[in-house]
Amino acid sequence: MKNKENNKKIYITFIAVMVVLYGAGYMVGRLVAKGEKSGGLDTMLNAVKSSLTKAVPPLYLVLAVFSLIAVCVLFLSCKKMYQKLQDNSEDDDLWDTLEEKMNFPMILSNIMQIANIFFFACIICIAEFNFYGKNGGYEMVVIIADCVLFFVVLAAGMLIPKGIVDMEKHLNPEKQGNVFDFKFNEVWLASCDEAQKMMAYKAAYKAFKDTNITCIVVCILSFVGMFIFKTGIYPILCVCVIWMVNNTSYMLRAAKLERRK
Fold first, then answer.
1. Residues 160 and 82 in one domain
2. Is 182 within a domain?
3. With 0-12 CB in 10 A as exposed, 13-18 as middle and 19+ as buried, what is 175?
4. Is the dihedral of CA 121, 211, 227, 50 positive or negative?
5. Rounded to two decimals, what is the model's pTM?
6. Which of 78, 184, 239, 249 is found 20 to 30 A from 42 (Cα to Cα)?
7. Span 20-35, mean pLDDT?
8. 150 and 198 fall within a common domain
9. Whole domain around residue 257: which residue ranges?
10. Do 182 and 209 sit in the same domain of this protein?
């Protein structure tokens, strides 16, 4: 009886979500069609495009400088704590604090790298197709500064993780791997103990689930954007390729591991 009741709730929830999504899609479609007929949608999109064209290049300067300062401060804080630990290697509390604190510059540098590539692509698109900076002056200075910062952030995003990994290897001599090695993840995981491997597996499964949910949301947004922003089918294709690789890779690997048993 409990299973039947649970299944009933699941089906009702699923149908309710589908109805809400369909209704939302229908309303968005009607609004887009109405906006296109009145010409208001094109006016709004042109205004947004113009605003972003002017705002993104200087915004990237601010974000890049801020992220560089933040990640460097976090790294230097870890470095200082690491040097203090060298003088007193028996301080277990300091050791545990450092191990936890080293996660933050790693996480931030990873986010910084991805955002750096995205914003740089936006700036190249703005400069190429919207002629930002073509007439020299302030805009050209901003574009040059953006390009310089792109490579600085790119270098920092590689060197800081290397510094963190080197500290981790000194704290735990059994750890192996070089950040610049294309097989770093395999080598590093192989040098971990069973408890650390289990944490990595749980984190990877959580990332798999989050990626699936994200792909669903982005696919819906891309579908809506195809009508509003005239983006075409390419964004949906990219999302579906990532979605397919994520699921297929997981299922094939799971099937292979099951056969080994």
1. yes
2. yes
3. middle
4. negative
5. 0.81
6. 239
7. 68
8. no
9. 193-261
10. no
Q: Are residues 113 and 161 in the same domain?
A: yes
Token match 């401060």: residue? Answer: 73
Whether residue 134 sits in one domain with residue 11: no
Do residues 124 and 197 share a domain?
no
State whether 114 and 231 are in the same domain: no
